Amino acid sequence: MSIRQIVIVCFEDPRRVSGGVQRRVAAEIEYFSKCGVGVTVITEGLGGTRNEESAQFITIPTPGVIYPLRSLIFAARAGQLLRHLPQGDVIEAHHDAGGAVLFAFPFRRSDRNVFVEVVHGVFRDEFAAIRQHEKSFSRAGLVASGLLPLSVMEQAAAHRATAVVTVSQYSAGQIVRHYGVPRSRIHVISNGISAESYTPMARPVSKNANGATFLLYVGRLNARKGVLQLLQAFALARHSYPSLQLKFVGDGPLAPNLWEMCVHLGLEGVVEFLGIVTDKEVLKAYQSADIVCIPSLQEGQGIVALEAQACGVPVVASRATGLLEVVRDRQTGLLVPPGDIQALSEAILELARSPLLRQELGHNAARWARSFTWENMLSPCLPLYEKLSISALETQQSN
Asked: Model's pTM, two decimal places?
């Protein structure tokens, strides 16, 4: 049999400026469409249905309440919609949208569909990582408490699913550890990059024209991403190397904290907060950076690491979680213990002081990242879904 129709449920609209989840969903839409599979996407928005070239988009409005309550409301409303949708072969629920299937089929698995829970970063593992490095009653610790209801939903959805797909071997292990899902039901299908978009830009071995060495961070400004530790490490490194400058691309709950720290550390003028920018501007930022920093305390895989490396930029990343599967220590970047401000500062200094090392690692990084194209990474999806569909059909017939 062949897969004819896939329904994808994701809270964040993949047509907007995107993070890792949105990038994955957008790539899947394009891939499935090219394979002749019909795609319906249920996501958050103003409400209504719109047919586009690659997929049908159904948007569900949600109230302007805090996250994660907003995503839970979306899951409940998406679940109501799923109950009345025409039959599809596969339902995929991504990240914080797994509750949609639980609301749609509260007492048992749907016998009409194969349900795949796609786990990007295990919520329970994210919470544990933040609690290890942040005080419970700090702003970062309190914000992290919102991960707990999401982890309960994710665990229930993983057990209800026909199969679980995740983005790294590390995440697969954490799903077993934290949620008790048998490893045989978990399939690793990694994230990738658009090799045509993310390419190196020719650059001299010497520093930028104004003499500065630019560090770049791209991602959410939250505790899990290690942004507080990055700013402290940058301040420490800059005492020894005053030409360092740092740019943050992204937004999040810790943005006010980071700005207050900048003022306290006297870093106004050398740290720049660019906020949320377009994907073209992100690409330009990668290509003009000397070093990309990925100091995450926990990471499912790390699309930013792949994108930066594809642009020929060496990375300084945490020696932790899924990042170990996409960054090669002292070959494409430098790895440091998560949360270790001193080690992060020293790695930044080592690359800042050695343009030749940056060039060598950057060349290696560009070659390494080219193997992570979306087409390569997503190629196991349809064979897996066909196998799951056949198995589900055989089970129904035997019953």
From this structure: 0.93
Q: Is residue 197 part of a domain?
A: no
165: which 2 tokens? 């797909």
- 201 or 369, which is more confident: 369
Q: Does the residue 83 lie in any domain? A: yes
Nearest to 36 by CA among 54, 57, 52: 54
Q: Is 206 inside a domain boundary? A: no
Q: Is the peptide bond before 68 cis (omega within 30 degrees of 0)?
A: yes
Cα 265 from Cα 230, distance rounded (Å): 13
Query: How far apart (Å, rounded) are the C-alpha atoms in residues 98 and 108?
Result: 14
pLDDT per residue over 20-63, tens digit each?
999 999 999 999 999 999 999 999 999 999 999 999 999 999 99
Q: Could you tell me where the DSSP H helices lie in 242-319?
A: 255-264, 279-288, 303-310
Nearest CA among 357, 397, 206, 199 for reference residue 284: 199
Task: Count structural domains, the chain.
Answer: 2
Domain residues for 324?
A: 213-369
